[in-house]
Amino acid sequence: MSSVIKSVSSQDTFIPRRMNRRFIYVVDNATTTDEIGEVLANDISGGTATWAGPSADDGAGATLLSGAVLNNHFFVNTQLNYRAGRLVEAYIRLRFLTAADAANARLWFGFTDQLGSVMAAADDPAGNYAAFRSTGGVDTNWRCCVKDAVTQNPQDSGVVVGIVKTILGVREVSAGIWQFLIDGVIRQTLSVNAPAPGTNLRITYGIRNIVGAPTRQVHVGRLYIASDD
Q1: Which of 28, 58, 105, 229 is the most buried (most CB within 10 A)?
Q2: pLDDT (tens digit, 9 = 90+) per residue, 53-72?
Q3: Cα separation of 13 and 224, whole Å?
């Protein structure tokens, strides 16, 4: 399947900072490259994605479906075009469709030097990252996680994972210091065990089925990525 990210604008909406390089994407199922020639690719094991226009519950976007088999997943990766130490940031609007989806899936969103398939496979995956995690049966609240390729530092956001539309934000405010925001409110500021400045990172996000049938779903709307370079 082709990429599920489509570039629609370079104007910021809910973003608190202005950066040299800014992109907004709305998720769909069309192949695309963005303004810097970045190819965005799906990372799939049994999963699919369906595009939908605005509805009573959601804006335009895509529903990512994990697949109904244990460990099926659907993730989306950018290229390694974002560098720690250059004040990168990313925001995404999403929601689980049902409480059962949240309770039986693992979701990651944020910056990492790994592919989504690596992040999907574990609560403490290998690599460098600053990312949100939600794992059913493990995380009642959104978990704010950083790792320096050796030690993970997972911290509680204090915000319950649910089925309401949520904007998750991950941003580096100075070299090695990462903030995690939910609906515009800073929930954690982490530096211990964070990715070292100079580490090249990508954005990844998606869902993995950690129980089995039926398929698990998350609706994803707009994605914003920025870099101060």
Answers
A1: 105
A2: 788 888 878 889 999 999 99
A3: 9
